[in-house]
Amino acid sequence: MKQYPTEQAGFPAQRPRRLRRDAATRRLVRESAISVDDLIQPVFVIDGEDRSEAVPSMPGVERLTIDRLQHEAAHLAELGVPAMAIFPVTPAEAKSDDAAEAWNPQGLAQRAVRAIKASTPDIAVITDVALDPFTRHGQDGLLDESGYVANDITLEALVRQARSHAEAGADIVAPSDMMDGRVGAIRAALEADSHPETRILAYAAKYASAFYGPFRDAVGSAGNLGSGDKRTYQMDPGNSAEALREVAMDLAEGADMVMIKPGMPYLDIIRRVRDAFEVPTFAYQVSGEYAMLNAAFDNGWLDRRACVMEALLGFKRAGADAILTYFAREVAGWLAET
Ligand code: PBG
């Protein structure tokens, strides 16, 4: 790094505070900022009509029926939010060992995609490709006789699921399952199905994190998973170089964008991936991060707006191009005010 003289004739040659002394100068030299273009709103969808349900561990987040989701999509588009990510809450009776509901053309996710694309075509719709909302055991894949999540039979199911999402009109499919080879299998199927333009956002470096707890409550998979965990396929939180290998594989298999998840505890991974590959790199501020911040806000311990903006700025500074965050709608509203 270049060295600057720090002292001359009794005064400091460099006074970094000169650039901090007023708002105008601070704005001129600021390196990173949050724009509405960076935001993706995750949403939970339930069956029924004109109904919503609170998610207790995620204050302010509601599961919505498709008609209400259409209003939400219109509202987000009006605020300028470019994309939303859809997560269906599957009724217990639709869950099975083979996860067949995942590729039902009349499934909740597929119907939600069609409804949103019909009413608000300009908002990009991202779908989650993974089997956990549809399996009785709550794992992201199918089990073999020994109870192990079996990679290659799961790939066939994921391909069927991704094809049904593309067929329904999803702009972006996002495999979040962490099976080996799933991006390549999905890419090949989309090309064969004449969906060459469907984008793949690969959850390339997804860690076996304890911060997903509230999400599993929200989609109702926590009870199914029980004391099980996802450590045989999601990444070990101690690893960093392995994330680069995962990203390299997903890109080689045809991913257009990659994601790091969770967010705040993995800012170093975002930076490493962004520097190493120079491809669109997204961060997911997950449910547990949202819950943690809200707990502090609700106790009056932290300032909501300032802390949310600072946390999101951290993702941008680390190199994220876009951020999935449950705060997206609220942040878009704040940005519209200023
Ligand atoms: C499903 C999936 C999960 C999340 C997104 N997709 C949960 C999991 O892997 O157990 C978590 C998102 C969040 O915590 O906000 N594969």
TrEMBL record:
Entry protein name: Delta-aminolevulinic acid dehydratase
Subunit composition and interactions: Homooctamer.
Alphabetical list of PROSITE patterns matching this protein: D_ALA_DEHYDRATASE
Gene symbol of the encoding locus: hemB
Catalytic activity: 2 5-aminolevulinate = porphobilinogen + 2 H2O + H(+)
Top EC class, one word: lyase
Segments forming a coiled coil: none
Protein family: Belongs to the ALAD family.
Domain of life: Bacteria
EC numbers on record: 4.2.1.24
Cross-referenced InterPro entries: ALAD (IPR001731), ALAD_AS (IPR030656), Aldolase_TIM (IPR013785)
Range of residues in the leader sequence: none
Keyword Cytoplasm carried by entry: no
The UniProt record lists the keyword Disulfide bond: no
An MF annotation (GO) of this entry: porphobilinogen synthase activity
Keywords, alphabetical: Heme biosynthesis, Lyase, Porphyrin biosynthesis
Known pathway: Porphyrin-containing compound metabolism; protoporphyrin-IX biosynthesis; coproporphyrinogen-III from 5-aminolevulinate: step 1/4
